[in-house]
Amino acid sequence: MTFTNIFEKIRLMNEYDSECWSARDLMPLLGYETWQKFEEAIKRAIESCKSSNVSEKEHFLSAPVKSTGGRPGKDVILSRYACYLIAQNGDPSKPEIALAQTYFALQT
């Protein structure tokens, strides 16, 4: 399976027929093992979005995760642009980040 297929396999379509991704699904493909570390990359991407005068609300949509007990989980529904920003703001030492940077840069 190529890296293109990996990202396309988890791609979702929203009610407006626009493609999007679940941050929870994207996280392991970018080499992150914990939500806390991945959430930092998301926060950096949101700041980058704001700095570009682009509304983050259009690209980063908070979503609940079904809980199997304990405290409720978090998820974020991401546009293609949001995924691109996360890849650009991710840990550059991870080979998965380099693949995502290439995929989302070519597709954005």
Fold and architecture overview:
The chain is an alpha+beta fold. Helix content is 49%, strand content 17%. The protein contains 5 helices and 4 strands; from the N terminus they run H-E-E-H-H-E-E-H-H. The chain has helices at residues 3-9, 23-29, 35-51, 80-88, 95-107; strands at 12-13, 19-22, 60-65, 73-78. A 4-stranded antiparallel beta sheet has the order 1-2-4-3. Strand 1 and strand 2 (19-22) form a beta hairpin. Helix 3 packs across helix 4 and helix 4 (80-88) packs antiparallel against helix 5 (95-107). The longest helix has 17 residues, at 35-51. The protein is globular and about 40 Å long. The relative contact order is 0.19. The mean pLDDT is 86.
Major sheet details: 4 strands, antiparallel
Q: Which consecutive residue ranges, at least 5 long each, have pLDDT under 50?
A: none
Rounded mean pLDDT is 86
Strand order of the biggest β-sheet: 1-2-4-3
What radius of gyration results from the CA coordinates?
Answer: 13 Å
Amount of helix:
40-55%
Strand content: 15-25%
Shape: globular
Tell me the structural class. alpha+beta
What separation lies between the terminal Cα atoms? 21 Å
Count of DSSP-assigned helices: 5
Number of strands: 4
What order do the SSEs take from the amino end to the carboxyl end, as H and E?
A: HEEHHEEHH
How would you summarize the topology of this molecule?
Elements: H1 3-9, E1 12-13, E2 19-22, H2 23-29, H3 35-51, E3 60-65, E4 73-78, H4 80-88, H5 95-107
Antiparallel strand pairs: 1-2, 2-4, 3-4
Helix pairs in contact: 3-4, 4-5
